[in-house]
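Quick one, T. Sequence first:
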Amino acid sequence: MVGDYRIKMIVSAAAVCGACVLFSCAEEAPTEPPDTPPEPWGYWEEMDLPFTAVDVQALKRDLAGGTWALAVENVDSSEWRILRYAGGAWRVEAGTDPAPMSVNNFFAVGPDDIWVVTMFCEILVWRGAAWEMVYEAPGELWDICMVSADEGWAVGEDGLVVHYKDGVFSEERLPPGATAYELVFSGPSDGWAIGSTGTLYHWDGASWDSIDPPIDVNGVQPLGGGACRAAGDRASYAAAGRYDGATWRYELLPGTKAAVDVYFPRDDEGWLFCSAPRSLTRGGARVAKVLHSRDERWRVDELPFECSPLYYPVRAADGALMCGGRQFEGDVVILRYVVYDVAQTRGKEASAVAVGR
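Structure tokens:
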């Protein structure tokens, strides 16, 4: 049963104001999910990249459902490349090569409308011919997200928020002004920013409000209507949280140190991307551990090699779930999850496009 190996807690809406009221908590210490499930649900495999990458800084979907990546090719000269996934393969997007120097993050509206933010406080746009600087901010920007071709947001240091709409840029600050390093929207009136202290900020179409979760948040998945899933940590465990706009629910998952990202393609199945406990390190670096939930049962996914914690989960238009990571004894990679067909599990015949079907 689910309660056999996890701690489940329900936190009242008072947590939004800083209080944390626990309504229920498992009395017994949880045990770990099994490392070797009797009937594997699938496996992760490495994808071919058009060059040897030294960093994968982001994986994102564009507004039409296409999948993109921002990667660094050369550790000495820091050559940024924007990759596009199509036809089951990754390639460098024609015309955008090379990307601007010192890119912190990006967002592709489409092939001829790609936005980047740089460590030089700039916002640049590719519109099919050349990179153009369209805005210089008063501080460094860490992430950018477009909600349409005519509107988008960027966040950065000291709570800086830059809003673009219909060709006009404006600035504001997040309350209480903590640096925000990740930004994601489900629509023009539902956006989330993660602060450097693990705090969440929500955009409801009118203002940015501070949301104080019961866990230290590292990753967030918007669900629409002010709801979200969150990945983080609490009490030296990885934590999976869910917020319905008023109440937080979260579970602590042992055998892990922290959760860095989360992705649920549907309500009854999803992934929590974690780091293993401090005792499981390689050269002082954290080891990735991926927890897979189906019908409220958690299992540990097998990875093809030891690597650092995996980030940036994204589901491609063909249904493939992908994320980025770094091998301890090799290169930076993008991994794809391959799902066993339920009717063919014992024969281990697989399909890479079955995620979220």
